[in-house]
Amino acid sequence: MRQRDKNYHSLIRKTMKTVGIFLLFLLVWKEAGIAAEQADKDKIMLSVKEGVEKGFLAAWSVSYPGAETDDGETELNWLDQLMAAWFPALKGWQKEEKGDYEDPAYREYLAANDFYREHPGLSQTETTDSLERETGENSSEEGALDCITEEENQGRERGEGQTFSDSMTCAVSQTLPITGTTYRREQLADYDFLMKHFYSVHTSTTAGRDLMKADVFLDEDFALEGDNSKPQILIYHTHSQETFADYGPDNPEATVVGIGSYLTQLLTDKGYNVIHDTSVYDMVNGKLDRSQAYNYALDGISRILRENPSIEVVLDVHRDGVDESVRLVTEVGGKPTAQIMFFNGISQTPDGPVDYLPNPNREKNLAFSFQLQLNAQAYFPGYTRKIYIKGLRYNLHVRPRSALIEVGAQNNTYEEARNAMEPLAELLDMVLQGN
């Protein structure tokens, strides 16, 4: 009898091992397959690693199940606890399968989705009421609509319930239609959602939950405090020698300085008082030298800011460099337009703050670029790349409304880069009016 029981238990153990190995293989195959579709080798390796751990944990949970307590949590037995010390994910395995996510913002986002799905009629009323509260205008007037897509607007006109928030997340334009993507605050409050849709983070830094807070970014008011009787905006170029594909004797304006001049004209036409600094900061003794360009630029713009303390906005306009096979071009208003990228330097490495490069305006800089990006996605879809975050400061500390803007790349034409200044001027105007 004892030998028979022993054989019986041995058979069960062998069966469990076989099932575990098979399950492990399926999970690894599935995880790697998903990543392979995205053609990302790093993601493939990461997914294989995650698949191995998940497969092991699944097999272990089947072979050595813990007891479930009254509140639905899983109580690990002593063997589980030992393995959990080696595989920390084991502790949260059952919880993850039940859909219990750690991020409370994500739970709020899911709850809001469920609410508006169950009460579609409330979304339209709520949007109208909030619009009247925040703008003082009736939502039936032209241009006074909440941030919704054109398709959603058509649905509203048909009387269909849509999913809106009672807080507007992009500026209201009296002249431009919303043709792109818009977001609810519940979506943006979820850190993972925010980072996935809006940011690329360089390995030189880290942008954690304590810093990247969409609600804080959205609540910042960047309306200019002074009038245009004195300078309000400074445009300059740390790398003034950056040129576009068709630069040459027949087209000497095909540089970042050239597009800076056009942006100056556009903002001046909108009523802003703009200084365009065309100084050269990346040439030393007649030769291109960018090793000290940011130091030289800081000296130059600091002098301008001392002489013009009324300046509230500082824009450093650059041109990016990419692989020749990449073309950063889209269409805006029927014109071929270089894509742009807002760039934030946050004075922080993965080890902590860069103490010798303090930026007291870091959070406001992040909020400024985020509001510009949010409006770009609503009004000019495809015009902007994700906001790029890097570890140093890049002279963004000089004003709360400081931005570094990469316009196209070396293989864009001057026309494409110049056309990109038109939507940029619109975006700046929206944010600087405090919409």
Helix % is 40-55%
Q: Report low-confidence residues grouped into runs of 5 or more.
A: 62-78, 87-102, 121-167
Number of strands: 15
What is the helix/strand order? HHEEHHHHHHHEHEHEEEHEEEEEEHEEHH
Strand order of the largest sheet: 3-14-11-15-8-4-5
Number of DSSP helical runs: 15
Spatial gap, N to C terminus: 82 Å
Question: What would you call the structural class?
Answer: alpha/beta
> How much beta, percentage-wise?
5-15%
- In round numbers, the mean pLDDT is 77
Largest sheet: 7 strands, mixed
What does this protein structure show overall?
The protein is α/β, with parallel strands linked by helices. It is 45% helix and 13% strand. The chain contains 15 helices and 15 strands. The chain has a 7-stranded mixed sheet with strand order 3-14-11-15-8-4-5. Strands 1-2 form a two-stranded antiparallel sheet. A two-stranded antiparallel ribbon has the order 6-7. Helix 1 (2-37) packs antiparallel against helix 2 (41-63) and helix 11 (256-269) crosses helix 15 (421-432). The longest helix is centred in the N-terminal third of the chain and has 36 residues, at 2-37. The N and C termini lie far apart (82 Å). Residues 62-78, 87-102 and 121-167 have low confidence and may be disordered.
